[in-house]
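Researcher: I'd like a structural prediction for the single chain below. Treat it as a standalone chain; there are no partners to consider.
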Amino acid sequence: MDTKTLDKDTRSKLRFATFIIPKFADAYKMDRQEAYRYLKKYGGLDYLYECWWALHTDNPFWAIRDMYKVCRNNGGLR
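Model: Treating it as a single chain, here is the predicted structure.
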C-alpha cells in the first residue's frame, strides 16, 4: 500500500492501531492475530478507530482497558 495516498489522519490511526493491538495482545495473553480478530468481532476496533484521538493521548494501559470494556460489553468473554 502506498502510504502517500493516505491522508494524515488515516496514517495516524493506522500507526496507533499497529502500536496498541500488540499491547492489547500482550496484556490479555493472546497472539496478535487472535487479538485483532477479538477486537474486530466485539467492536474494539470500531471503538479504537472512532476514539483514537483521545485514546492515543493517554497511557496505553487505559486505552487497552477501555477497549477491553467495549469488547466485554459486546459479548467478549475473555
